[in-house]
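Lecture notes, continued. The same structure-token format from the folding unit now serves as the input rather than the output. Read the line below as a description of shape only.
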């Protein structure tokens, strides 16, 4: 087949899935393929899907159907579906979506070049069931994020087996990359202009347990801090029961390590936490949060919460609401429980009706917005370090993120500047105005 074929890619879901997409792009680029952003111009369209919850599945299916139209209206000769939806629903895709020419599960994406060759020759490709079979070593990668920041996946899979979650069956058991391989990729990223590393895994705090016999995240962080060119290192997906004093002290003693904690606690009622298969209770969560704030008074706490879990009563939700108000999280994501087939939680009695779930979600998000506004107001008059992400032509302001803000999920800081600022520049901004989520200010020299 001709490598003159142009490829368009749609990447859905989480940052971990995005890294898989970037690895596929790297592998394809190494083979000489070219890429286009407009799907109507593409000869090959690749959709890397998510299937974590109902909304994600719906988005994935709708995107596949949208892209399938270009087989009639555009140049598309080949439509490839990869990722979690392909792993989970490969038979359904084959049966219901005949427009799809190749189905590639979570463990088979490293074979994307041979998949395209086989599909172009007329073979009906369907690869799945190998989520734990591929090597985790650093592979070619083409960043789709701005040049100055990148996600760095340090492990794959999950061993936690929360009762509502399908990820272990889609991504396999927890497998860590070696410290040396991760540091080598970090050096490569830094050499290409990356200044902020965002460390990701399904559970970053258990990094190294499988390779080294005990958690090795503090040691990995210390090694990453030595990489020249990296200015910020941000941690995502820290499970509360695995946040140790050693980890907190490591973060406190290294200036590159942002005091940013993404801790998915999911709930605050002990009975609901137990039914979820979580490994902490309310008292332990309060103790941990207080310890983080005592060790790092400027710590930014982000969490995710699930409302409407089976058996959640009005009293249980009120306890979660009051807990959220008490803990004053800086960043909160609230999700209505999604009943996923083949999970233990799907079989639980006392499922909560959709309207109640949505009502509880809206109420908790309204509280989170109030807390966010008050916290933002307290920043007026202060000066923040901001990593510039770009220039907004509509407002005629630059925008970027402080240490409190992770890309795509948190807020922005908009600022004026008398001198030209480029994406990736780390500048000082005095905050002049606060909104519910975003801040506005002026760069100071």
């Amino acid at each position: 087949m001709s490598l003159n074929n142009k490829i368009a890619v749609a990447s859905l879901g989480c940052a971990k899935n995005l890294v898989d997409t970037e690895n596929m792009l790297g592998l394809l680029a190494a083979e000489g393929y070219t890429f286009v952003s407009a799907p109507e111009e593409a000869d090959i369209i690749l959709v890397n899907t998510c299937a974590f919850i109902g909304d994600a599945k719906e988005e994935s299916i709708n995107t596949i159907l949208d892209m399938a139209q270009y087989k009639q209206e555009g140049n598309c000769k080949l439509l490839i579906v990869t990722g979690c939806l392909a792993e989970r629903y490969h038979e359904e895709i084959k049966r219901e979506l005949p427009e799809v020419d190749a189905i590639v599960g979570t463990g088979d994406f490293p074979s994307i070049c041979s998949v395209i060759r086989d599909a172009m020759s007329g073979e009906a490709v369907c690869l799945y069931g190998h989520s734990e079979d591929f090597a985790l070593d650093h592979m070619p990668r083409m960043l789709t994020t701005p040049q100055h920041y990148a996600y760095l996946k340090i492990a794959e899979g999950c061993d936690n087996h929360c009762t509502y979650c399908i990820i272990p069956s889609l991504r396999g058991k927890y497998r860590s990359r070696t410290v040396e391989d991760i540091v080598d990729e970090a050096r490569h990223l830094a050499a290409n202009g990356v200044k902020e590393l965002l460390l990701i895994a399904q559970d970053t705090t258990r990094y190294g347990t499988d390779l080294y016999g005990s958690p090795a995240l503090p040691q990995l962080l210390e090694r990453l801090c030595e990489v020249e060119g990296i200015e910020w290192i941000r941690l995502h997906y820290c499970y509360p029961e695995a946040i140790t004093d050693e980890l907190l002290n490591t973060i406190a003693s290294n200036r590159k390590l942002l005091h940013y904690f993404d801790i998915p606690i999911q709930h605050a009622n002990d009975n609901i936490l137990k039914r979820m298969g979580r490994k902490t209770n309310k008292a332990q969560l309060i103790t941990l949060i207080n310890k983080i704030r005592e060790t790092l008074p400027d710590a930014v706490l982000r969490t995710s919460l699930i409302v409407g879990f089976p058996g959640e009563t009005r009293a249980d939700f009120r306890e979660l609401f009051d807990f959220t108000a008490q803990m004053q999280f800086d960043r909160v994501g609230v999700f209505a429980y999604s009943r996923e087939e083949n999970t233990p939680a799907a079989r639980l009695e006392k499922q909560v009706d959709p309207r109640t779930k949505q009502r509880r979600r809206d109420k908790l998000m309204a509280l989170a917005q109030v807390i966010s506004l008050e916290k933002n107001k307290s920043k007026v008059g202060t000066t923040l370090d901001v990593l510039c992400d770009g220039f907004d032509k509509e407002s005629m302001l630059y925008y970027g993120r402080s240490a409190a803000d992770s890309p795509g999920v948190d807020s922005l800081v908009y600022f004026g500047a008398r001198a030209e600022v480029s994406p990736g520049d780390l500048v000082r901004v005095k905050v002049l105005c606060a909104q519910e989520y975003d801040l506005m200010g002026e760069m100071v020299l």
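Point for the exam: The radius of gyration is 22 Å.
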